[in-house]
UniProtKB/TrEMBL annotation:
Gene3D superfamilies: 2-enoyl-CoA Hydratase, Chain A, domain 1, Lyase 2-enoyl-coa Hydratase, Chain A, domain 2. One of its GO terms (molecular function) is isomerase activity. Keywords: Fatty acid metabolism, Isomerase, Lipid metabolism. The keyword Lipid metabolism applies. GO terms for biological process: fatty acid beta-oxidation. PROSITE patterns: ENOYL_COA_HYDRATASE. Belongs to the enoyl-CoA hydratase/isomerase family. Pathway: Lipid metabolism; fatty acid beta-oxidation. This is Crotonase/enoyl-CoA hydratase family protein.
Length: 273
């Protein structure tokens, strides 16, 4: 077995992707290591997200993890390797559009055409929290701990969190969490806007939400995600208003919208297959 094929095997073993009933279930499978992110895990997470791009059969994604933690952050064992490499050569090249590999761990989910719901348990620290930030919606177990952990290692967050956090939490909260690296509990995260919901069974709740979304018009849901992304990007009011009209014009009278109307009139669930 060559070194490259061995690395590919590691990547394949890190993340599982299953599609059922128009929902993609993406599961981190390195539970024995608390799903810590090493190079193979980063490649696997990005590959999983990119494998779902452009698939018309998918209407929502559930992002979850095996074991007692969603993701404990960067694999500490990787730090030794990183220290021996040229940091500029490692982090500066834009290997995935506007992002490098580690940033794409978060951004691939933000850029996916359909909603992503993350189910969190145990801890979501550092890289794990930034991965969770890639989701549209985050459901956490009451015992979950979350932290912007990079200051503990003398670093700054550099995996996409700084793209997402300013739109979710107050500046003082972001500064407090970034400067101190202190973990917060799920209740505090909910209060501050990092978590959407708290549930005793976050995976089941994430799957329930995904099922509700999957029952809505696929074209309307995708249009809504595009609109929200544009509105959050700092676009002008004129640009957002025009985009609203453009998306609506494309939906009115279309096959999906007509099926929704017919289903509502008949008191049945719509069928988009």
């Amino acid at each position: 077995m060559t070194e490259q094929s061995g690395f590919e095997a590691e990547v394949a073993a890190r993340v599982r992707v299953e599609v059922r009933d128009h929902i993609a279930h993406v599961t981190l499978t390195r539970g024995d290591k608390m799903n810590a992110v090493d190079p193979a895990m980063a490649e696997a997470i990005v590959a999983a997200g990119e494998s779902l791009r452009g698939r018309d059969d998918i209407r929502a994604v559930v992002l979850a993890a095996e074991g007692r933690a969603f993701c404990a952050g960067l694999d500490v064992a990787s730090f030794g390797k990183f220290a021996k490499e040229d940091p500029v050569a490692r982090v500066m090249p834009r290997t995935h559009g506007e992002a490098n590999l580690m940033q794409q761990v978060c951004m691939v989910w933000r850029d996916l055409e359909v909603p992503v719901i993350a189910a969190l348990q145990g801890v979501a620290f550092g890289a794990g929290l930034q991965l969770a930030m890639g989701a549209d919606i985050r459901v956490a177990d009451p015992g979950t701990k979350l932290a912007i952990m990079e200051a503990k290692w003398g670093l700054v967050p550099d995996m996409g969190g700084m793209v997402v956090w300013p739109g979710l939490i107050r500046s003082d909260v972001l500064r407090l969490m970034t400067y101190t690296a202190e973990p917060i509990d799920a209740a505090q995260a909910l209060s501050w806007g990092l978590v959407t919901l708290i549930s005793d069974d976050p995976l089941a709740e994430a799957q329930r939400i995904a099922g509700v979304i999957a029952g809505k018009s696929p074209s309307a849901t995708r249009g809504a995600k595009r609109l929200i992304a544009l509105a959050e990007s700092g676009a002008s009011s004129a640009e957002v208003l025009l985009a609203e009209s453009r998306e609506q014009a494309a939906l009115i009278g279309g096959a999906h919208q007509m099926e929704v109307i017919a289903a509502n009139m008949a008191g049945r669930a719509p069928q988009f297959d």
